[in-house]
Structure formats: C-alpha cells, structure tokens
Amino acid sequence: MNIGIRRGIAIAAWVAAMVAGCAMPDDEPAAESAHAQADVPWPQARMDAFQSEHAGMLAASSMGQAEPLQPPQLDTSRLVTAEIMDQAGFGRPVVAWRVQIPAGWQTTGGVVWNDAANCHSNMVQTAWSAIGPDSLSVIELMPNFGWQVQGTQIQTDPCPVAPFRSAREFLQAAAKQSRPEARVLDYIDRPEWVQEAERNSERMMRETGMGLQPGQARRFEAGSLLLAFEKDGIEMREMLSTVVNFTQINGNISAVATGVVSYRAPNDRLDLKLIDRILGTAEQDKQWQALAMPRLKQNIERYFSGQRRKIDEWHSRQMAIINARGMADRHAIRMRGNREVAGIYNQIAANTSATSDRMHRRGLEAIGEYNTHAGVQGTQVQSSIHGGSQVFQNTQDPSRAYSTDEPYPNPPDDYVELQRVP
Questions:
Q1: DSSP state for residue 233 in the 8-state scheme
Q2: pLDDT category, 18, cuts 50, 70, 90?
Q3: How would you label 99-109 residue by residue, b for 16+ Cβ within 10 Å and e otherwise?
Q4: Which of 259, 298, 309, 411 could make an S-S bridge to 392, C-beta 3.0–4.6 Å?
C-alpha cells in the first residue's frame, strides 16, 4: 500500500480513537489517576499561584468601583449521562460518545463529517458544548486540526501549511482566533497526557495493523493554556487544552491537534476538579467506531486513488507530448534528409545536363570552326577560329563585334574584351 495512504489511515485511526477529533476523553483517565495519587488536580497549585499573583491587581482595578455582578454558584455535585451524537454521518443518528456532565447543564453540537476534505485529519470533526445554568460556565470540544509545519511542506500532502511547531504555539494561535481580547496568564505542559496518547496510539496501530514507516519518527506534545477575559462585565477564566501528534519523514513534518478542549467559567469558579471528573467519564461508542473506521479508510483511499489517477493522467499527457515531439523531430529529420538527397540529385542532374550541353556545344564549335564568347547583355558571340584570338564587343550595340591578333589592341572606348565560354 502507498506510504501516504498507510500514514493517512494510521493517523485517521488514531484520530478517530481520540474522540473523533478530541484526544482529551481517552487521555483523561490516566491524568485523573495521576492527580488522585498526588491529591492535587492540575493545575490547582498553579491556579492558586495565579490567583494570589493577580489578586492584588484585580483588587486594585476594582477599587472605587461598584461590586461586580456575580453569577449564582452552581451545584455540580451530581453528574448525569450526556450523549455526543453523530446526527447525519450514517443516514440516522448514532451515539458517538457518552460523557457525564452536571445535572441541569444543556448540550449542543455533535460529530460532523466532511468527506470532501482532502486532509485526512479534518474529515471528521467534533464540535460539542455543555453549558451551565448560568450560561457562563461552558465545557466545549472544538474541532481537531491537521497541518504541515511551514518550511517542511510537500506538494503531495493535502493538509494546509501552518507555522505551529509545538502544542503551545498551536494553543496560543487557537486562543487568538477564538478569543482575541483574552489575556494569556500561563501555560503548562501535560506529560501525563503525552504518555496516555502514546499508549492509545500504539494500541490503535496494533489493532489496525498500521505502524511507523522506515525513517518515520513521531512525538506527542500536550499542554493547557490559561486565559482571562471579560464577558458582560464579569471577569472570566478559560483553560484551553490539546494533544498534538507530530510525525516526521524525509524532512516533512505533519501535525494533528486532536481537538481543543475549552473550559471557561467566572473567575474563582473555574472548578478544575470538575473538568477532570467530566473528561474522565468520556467513553466512545463501539458501534459508532465500527462505522467510522471503514468510512475514514475509504475517504483516505479515495483521495490517494484520485492522486494516483491524476499522476497517471499527467504522466500520460507528458508521454504523449514527448512522443508527439519525437515524432515531429523525426519527421523534420526525414524531410531535411529528403531535401538534402534531392539537392544532391538535382546537382548531379544539373551537372550532367551542363556537361551534356557543353559537349554538344563543343561538337557544334568543332564542326563550325568557331569559339563561343560570353557577350554583354546576356548575348553570346561566335568568333571564327581563323580570325583573331581576342574578341571585342560594343557595349551600346551588341551586334557589333570584332576579333584581332594584335599584341597591343586599342579598341574604341565603348568596346569590351569578351571571355571564351569554357
């Protein structure tokens, strides 16, 4: 199988296993376990430091102002099952994922297919949100994104070109696009998510029979970006998280960010234990996975088959051009050869004719006892061999000519000496 197809199917299989564009649910159980062992959910320690660091600034900014509007405290103690649906991918609604969310929260969105996408990482997208009763607290799964790292791109890879060389650069760009007014407070790497992503990827590679190609290298990066912004007069906090798979072969680096998980809430209400609890319950539906994998493979194989067909058609056109050019060159060579041969034959014929004419004239001269001289104005002058050896002709009246044997002839001014025709 073509290397590009194998790489595309392998990555697509991995992407599909990571929430059809969001790696967080599959990754979170390990992270939750690690947090449980440390008894400090990430990034609580960092968040405490943030809050302490920014408390003075926030207090100073609110001095002399009215008490800001505070939304009611949410009760998130009880979780209920929510379904992330694939409404139209298979002609009927199919549950793609199940996840626990706080009771009373509303959900919107789901899984969307884009079979026409050339980049394998963008063929299936998850855009889903769980919204709290205060309409401010939101957990959102944003679509995944695949790209070629700028400066390493190749024309045969259909994925777009972008400059992001790390998970941090990607998250900063995503934050700037989705929340341009937000302030970046901090970033932290998520090594536990990297470990879980590597385990999940290796498992999916074994299940699909796909592996890294010779000379191919892969690495994962994961991280979370903390933002601050204001919404309707309320100070907000938002955490953006993702896992990025970087694959390199022959100098080309491709990347897949398996979605971005956004958790936002009013300041001091960003419950990091809650997001860990929710993401830790995510479970992919086996029926949807069984339907999605063949479709992903079919889309990828269709794209690369189309690429092969275009290459074959281009090759055929190029060969036709080369053959036509070769045929034209060969025809030109034949025509040039024919002209040269014809010229040789014509020259031979001309020489033969001239020789025959000369022999015929010589015969007539011998019989008539005269020599032929080339006269003026295209005339010929026949002079008897019994006359003089020098022949002169009048340039004004070619009919007047004479011969002489005088050693120093002195012809009139309008006479010229003629030369014998060889």
A1: T
A2: very low
A3: bbbbeebebeb
A4: 411
